[in-house]
């Protein structure tokens, strides 16, 4: 079986598009991971700031409770 030049070009183009797609997908996945980690760290910092303010104002020494009952 021999490949004509047009078929070789199509195959190379298909592989190039596949490579571009895989790099793009990897970038999106990495961004989503980074954003989730950043959001969790931001929430932890904010919760720590609120707890420190509550302790400074004498509003109790406990950690802020979370959940439906508290």
TrEMBL record:
Membrane-spanning parts: 6-25
Keywords assigned: Membrane, Transmembrane, Transmembrane helix
Region ranges (Disordered): 49-70
Name by which UniProt lists this protein: Uncharacterized protein
Species per Swiss-Prot/TrEMBL record: Brevundimonas intermedia
């Amino acid at each position: 079986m021999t490949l004509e030049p047009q078929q070789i070009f199509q195959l190379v183009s298909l592989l190039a598009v596949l490579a571009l797609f895989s790099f793009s997908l990897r970038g999106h996945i990495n961004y989503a991971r980074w954003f989730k980690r950043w959001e969790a760290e931001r929430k932890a910092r904010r919760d720590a700031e609120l707890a420190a303010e509550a302790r400074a104002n004498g509003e109790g020494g406990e950690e802020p409770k979370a959940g439906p009952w508290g």
